[in-house]
Amino acid sequence: MTSSSPALNRIRVGSAPDSWGVWFPDDPRQVPWQRFLDEVADAGYEWIELGPYGYLPTDPAVLAAETRRRGLKVSAGTVFTSLHHGPAVWDRTWAHVSDIAALTRAMGAEHLVVIPSFWRDDKTGKVLEDSTLTAQQWRDLAAQTERLGREVRERYGLKIVVHPHADTHVDTEENVCRLLDATDPDLVSLCLDTGHYAYCGGDSVKLIETYGERIGYLHLKQVDPEILAEVVADEVPFGPAVARGVMCEPPAGVPALEPVLAAAQALDVELFAIVEQDMYPCPPDKPFPVAERTRRFLRSCGA
User: Fold this and answer.
1) Is 113 domain-assigned?
2) What are the 10-residue block averages of pLDDT along the chain, 303 residues in total?
3) Which residues have CB under 8 Å from 26's CB, separation 6+?
4) Residue 200 placed within a domain
5) What's the chain's Rg over C-alpha atoms?
6) Which of 2, 35, 52, 182 could pair with 31 as two cysteines, CB 3.0-4.6 Å apart?
7) Strand (E) positions, the chain?
8) Number of structural domains, the chain?
9) Residue 208: which of 142, 266, 169, 146 has the closest Cα?
10) What whole-number distance in Å separates Cα of residue 144 and Cα of residue 152?
11) CA dist 238 → 61, 120, 289 (Å)
């Protein structure tokens, strides 16, 4: 920590399998889970997310033993939803959510990161549905997200945090604010991913200052503005954009993380700030040095 960077004593820094190029439960191009756990601990992180369900051991006793002996704790699980399709998808959604929520709770975590479904395939670019929701779909999205928040809290004691994401319907400032304005603050909070929000044209500091009480969780990430301009101009889907390097190692990209962290600290609540360095696929030896440098950088910011 430098003298110019006050301690961010309410920010709990962690990382995630995503920072090791892990997007799927099982993929030969991904590092084994044991290596991820070893390296995330060696890089100086104390907190981790579960990543895609099935990548880390799903037996709570096994996972607890493996994390404990490396000095790691779990901050959140992640689920994928398509709640704008309304009550018809509830049963399928809950089948996906319940196992992950149970493991998340068993690991002592309190948050469930909720990622909306993509409107175009993140690998092929095939358009799966309209990129704009109808008024009825917005109503369904709000109502079903509130329902998810209520059910997850009542059954598992967890808080949901909705993650704005490129190539989903919850992406831009307009759409993020629309969802927040349409949902109960007691049931629905936000996982502000600084990289995805910048990717979609948003200002993270402004969002924190405007909707501070709704910010329940942070993902720390940066985008390369030059590559972003190219992928937007070429209408490149998110997956190939990541392969082009659109998400870059801090502090090389935007947004600057120091003011984001300062704004988050000013909220005067405990917040997780989980590093997510999107890079799928990537060589197995690439993630660790990046993670180590990023941890050093965040310490220089006071975190």
Assistant:
1) yes
2) 65 98 95 98 98 98 98 98 98 97 98 96 88 97 98 98 97 98 98 98 98 98 98 94 96 98 96 95 96 97 93
3) 54, 55
4) yes
5) 18
6) 35
7) 11-15, 47-49, 73-81, 111-116, 159-162, 189-193, 215-220, 222-223, 247-248, 271-275
8) 1
9) 266
10) 12
11) 35, 9, 24
